[in-house]
Automatic annotation (TrEMBL):
Residue span(s) of domain CENP-V/GFA: 27-144
Identification of the protein by name: CENP-V/GFA domain-containing protein
Disordered: annotated span: 1-24
Family: Belongs to the Gfa family.
InterPro entries: CENP-V-like, CENP-V/GFA, Mss4-like_sf
Keywords: Metal-binding, Zinc
Organism of origin: Coniosporium apollinis (strain CBS 100218)
Signal peptide, first to last residue: none
GO molecular function annotations of the record: carbon-sulfur lyase activity; metal ion binding
Amino acid sequence: MSSNAPSTQETPTPDTPTQDASTQATHQGGCHCARIRFTATLPDALTSTQLTDCNCSICVKNGYHFLYLPNSSVTFIRGEHEAKKYFFHKQRIAHYFCAECGTSVWAESVDPEFYAGWKALNVRAFDDVDMSVLKFEKVDGKSH
Ligand SMILES: [Zn+2]
């Protein structure tokens, strides 16, 4: 038998409530006019979560700071199916925004071989978010 060293992988196990939920953090968010509303459960506190600070064309235009979560950690209260989708370049990522107020709320892949089952939430859409205390990781999306 192999010895099972404690796993350090960061992928949350879907639908399995963990006994130690002390580091989990649940946030509500949505677009500016509140037609889109969601709840997101993070494995760690938002302030200790690395968010993207990407220089690619869409991230700069939309002010995206993405937080990646499995679909099971994001629950839409309303508006998921009313959101407009924008595609460009390889057409494999749907960028969702509110048709009413224009807030860029999230993005997700439509390519089953590219980040299937994950959502990229724009942390700017979280309620009462204090951008000044968050941690960002520079991503050079422009060159890719
Ligand atoms: Zn809206």
